[in-house]
Amino acid sequence: VDVFQEGLAMVVQDPLLCDLPIQVCAECWDYRCEPPGRPVIVLKSATVLDLKKAIQRYMQLKQEREGGIQHISWSYVWRTYHLTSAGEKLTEDRKKLRDYGIRNRDEVSFIKKLRQK
């Protein structure tokens, strides 16, 4: 395990890969979608649901590293906010990101859902 960690540390020192965390996973090598300030990595064939799960994983790892909030209610977050890209709401979880026109290093943000009367 130590040898693997040392090898991985050397790989992520490469200028093209230097922004990857040390605990990088296999899916991290294929595609990136970067919301402002939060680099999230998903496969090229990812769906909106895959992006949501990647955001959850990223925030979980960040909280573990920084010792922040222990629990985030993701059901509340997804019930209260939409993800948006270039002004378009990502409303269909099964729809591919590329169908929304999302490409490498595009920005995705949260927007509060409007209450329906």
From TrEMBL:
Superkingdom of origin organism: Eukaryota
Domain SNRNP25 ubiquitin-like: 39-114
GO terms under biological process: mRNA splicing, via spliceosome
InterPro entries: SNRNP25 (IPR039690), SNRNP25_ubiquitin (IPR040610), Ubiquitin-like_domsf (IPR029071)
A GO cellular-component term linked to this record: U12-type spliceosomal complex
PANTHER family: U11/U12 SMALL NUCLEAR RIBONUCLEOPROTEIN 25 KDA PROTEIN, U11_U12 SMALL NUCLEAR RIBONUCLEOPROTEIN 25 KDA PROTEIN
Protein name stated in the entry: SNRNP25 ubiquitin-like domain-containing protein
Native source species: Cebus imitator
Lineage: Eukaryota, Metazoa, Chordata, Craniata, Vertebrata
